[in-house]
Amino acid sequence: MALVGYIYFTTPETAVPSGLSLPLLAVLSAINPLLLLGVACLFGAYAAPRVGLQSYVIDRKGTGNGIWQRLRSDIGLAVGTGIIGGVLIVVLDAVMMPFVAQDLPQSVIGATRPTVLDVFAYVPVRFLYGGITEELMLRFGLMSGLVFVGWRITGRRADGPQPAVVWAAILIAAVLFGLGHLPALAQSVDLTPALIARTVLLNAVAGVLFGWLYWRRSLEAAMVAHASFHVPLVVLSLVQVALL
What we know:
Layout: H1 2-10, H2 22-28, H3 31-47, H4 56-63, H5 67-100, H6 105-108, H7 116-153, H8 163-179, H9 182-186, H10 193-216, H11 219-243
């Protein structure tokens, strides 16, 4: 819903393909993510409980324990991890900028300057699509599935998967999380090896943090961290708008 709303309110009529209306374009844009989300949730619902990866929403059905009572102890760590991760990405991006700066001018010339409205229009996508949908896809679906496969391959130990199996799943899901951001980037810039490496690395670092939280705490903690991760990025975007 956040993605549909963002596309509807920010896409100019001139960018709508012939034969489509803007509302239809916005709705169609959600079909692919929705299908991926459904598949990921099916994988996660099957795999996660079998390898000890925890979701308070799922556990509540079997135990009757309240979600908030259990999540409350994770909030501080999740928010702190997300915000520190966001700041870390901003710093790493600044460090890497000299290596990719030469690749940007050919793609950004003529781009319109963002406004405060543009920044806030994207906030629901950052917090909801990023914080919830991407965690369901990448951590609950993909990472859980990878841990389950690794656990089966390594002998289905009664005490659960080995840490090496979980770390491998965290890293693979994190790298795929980074690769998943390339199509959106390609719509606004010309991809080069340096830009691809930067995008994958920065997002993979965040993915490792979220994967670790999912493993050690819960899926919901990873969601809170992912949403909090975007707070420094929103603040930075507002500062950039003010300075332009």
